[in-house]
Structure to design on (520 residues):
């Protein structure tokens, strides 16, 4: 299993394009908000959790559409479905390597972006934790969508349209934790719920992704 | 059944501007769904007619 | 009972035959419920103490919101049956229900907005119910969008079944998250939007309207499902016979 993850990561890192562009996208989107709203420090500070979270959400969503594309084109998908290893496990490996290469850079650079939006240091810490707990959920749910559209050639923005309503709970509680931190309120409840979301998704999302893959491959 | 009574109904205690459009939109949605069904049925009839003509 | 259901409703042909006698009764029931609900709700029920005659929008808003959520549940059940047992009727039911459900969600949003203006002074408000309804609308539209992109029928049905099930699992989570989010940002004005307890004289037309909306859903569902059945089996003998009649 670690071999698969290592292979996936190596393949992804070889193409700097695939993991660098989501990171740049993330940074640029966050930069667009002050340009659109104005440099008022208080306002930016208030909006920072939402802005960073939405930018991370979009960056994850737009990059996960291609999770199975290369496999499908090169015929690896059939091999995945026929392999002796459980499909759920293979999907989990792919998702984890995707998260490591695409979401982890976002999380690492988010404090810098928080600083740009005048986020106080104490909340930076909460930002990292909330993204750490939230991005796996984004990736896991996105994988279901990626599996559903794997055979569709010109799907455009269908994947975001399908998956974004499902992102609402994570978004609410992720930014809720930051808002609570700003008001000096306890955040453990929010983080606990996000942990619960993560566990739930770990349990069910790879299974559903596998089902969707089997359906998609039959096209 | 004079005009005053009708105007009273239309006014709906001052909220007529909101109540009647809400109900009318509802009736429109119902009617439009029926229209969609009817249009689908017409298209179906055309297809089936074409089919039966072919089989003859 | 399962055998009776299987015999009379499982195959498209038997479904079509079995539902033919139901249609006139459903139409009558719908007309009665809607007629009673409309007349009692618009003219006879007493005006609300706080909201005056403006509350009469409730008789179209609440039923449409109720139907929007109920239809999604039915759609999800049909999706589950489609995925697990590959029943054609269930797939047709799922697809048709989605389109009807989307209309009702749209209606709930519009009537909710119209109700909001005289009641709370604003055309739109990000309260829990309306926001949930908006997300439900996106779930419906996403389902329909996915269906429109996949050309192969079997894959379309199975893939959209998956997204419907994923949606229904998330629906309660989304709903309660939005309620939580609302209490978070609402603060002291929450009581303003709380649903007041309803008097019986106002309740009866409401129940009638809810029944009427669900009957309308059932009616349109059956009508359009029958169309789809005829369309899919167009080349078969029994369809030709039905058409010839």
């Amino acid at each position: 299993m670690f071999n698969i993850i290592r292979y996936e990561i190596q393949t992804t890192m070889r193409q700097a394009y695939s993991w660098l562009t989501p990171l740049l996208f993330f940074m640029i989107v966050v930069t667009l908000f002050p340009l659109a709203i104005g440099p008022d420090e208080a306002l930016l500070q208030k909006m920072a959790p939402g802005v960073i979270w939405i930018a991370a959400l979009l960056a994850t969503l737009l990059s996960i559409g291609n999770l199975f594309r290369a496999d499908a084109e090169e015929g690896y998908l059939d091999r995945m479905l026929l392999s002796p290893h459980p499909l759920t496990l293979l999907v989990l490996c792919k998702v984890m390597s995707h998260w490591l290469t695409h979401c982890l850079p976002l999380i690492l650079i988010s404090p810098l972006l928080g600083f740009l939006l005048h986020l106080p240091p104490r909340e930076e810490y909460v930002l990292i934790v909330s993204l750490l707990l939230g991005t796996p959920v984004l990736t896991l749910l996105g994988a279901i969508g990626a599996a559903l559209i794997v055979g569709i050639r010109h799907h455009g923005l269908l994947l975001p349209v399908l998956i974004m309503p499902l992102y609402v709970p994570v978004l609410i509680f992720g930014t809720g934790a930051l808002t609570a931190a700003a008001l000096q309120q306890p955040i453990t409840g929010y983080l606990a719920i996000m942990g619960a979301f993560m566990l739930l998704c770990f349990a069910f999302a790879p299974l559903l992704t596998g089902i969707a893959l089997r359906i998609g491959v039959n096209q | 059944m004079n005009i005053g009574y009708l105007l009273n109904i239309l006014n709906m205690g001052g909220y007529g501007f909101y109540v009647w459009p809400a109900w009318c939109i509802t009736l429109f949605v119902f009617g439009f769904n029926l229209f969609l069904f009817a249009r689908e049925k017409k298209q179906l009839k055309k297809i089936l007619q074409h089919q039966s003509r072919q089989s003859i | 009972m399962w055998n009776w259901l299987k015999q009379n409703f499982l195959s498209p042909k038997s479904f079509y035959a079995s539902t033919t006698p139901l249609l006139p009764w459903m139409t009558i029931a719908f007309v009665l419920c809607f007629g009673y609900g409309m007349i009692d709700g618009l003219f006879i029920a007493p005006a609300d103490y706080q909201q005056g005659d403006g509350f009469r929008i409730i008789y179209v808003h609440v039923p449409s919101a109720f139907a929007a959520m109920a239809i999604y549940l039915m759609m999800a059940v049909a999706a589950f049956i489609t995925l697990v047992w590959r029943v054609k009727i269930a797939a047709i039911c799922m697809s048709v229900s989605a389109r009807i459900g989307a209309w009702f969600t749209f209606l709930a949003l519009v009537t909710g907005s119209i109700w909001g203006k005289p009641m709370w002074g604003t055309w739109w408000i990000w309260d829990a119910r309306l926001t949930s309804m908006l997300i439900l609308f996106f779930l419906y539209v996403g389902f329909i969008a996915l269906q429109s992109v996949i050309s192969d029928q079997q894959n379309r049905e199975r893939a959209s079944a998956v997204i419907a099930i994923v949606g229904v699992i998330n629906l309660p989570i989304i709903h309660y998250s939005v309620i939580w989010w609302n209490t978070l940002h609402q603060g002291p004005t929450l009581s303003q939007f709380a649903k007041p307890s309803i008097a019986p004289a106002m309740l009866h037309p409401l129940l009638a309207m809810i029944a009427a909306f669900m009957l309308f859903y059932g009616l349109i569902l059956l009508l359009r499902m029958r169309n789809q059945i005829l369309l899919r089996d167009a080349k078969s003998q029994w369809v030709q016979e039905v058409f010839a009649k």
About this structure: Residues 59 and 201 of chain C are 13 Å apart (CA to CA). Chain C has nine helices and no strands. Residues 188-193 of chain C have pLDDT under 50 and may be disordered. Chain C touches chain B at residues 38, 42-43, 47, 51-54, 56-57, 60-61, 64, 100, 103-104, 106-107, 110-111, 114-115, 117-118, 216, 220, 223-224, 227, 230-231, 234-235, 239-240, 243-244 (CB under 8 Å).
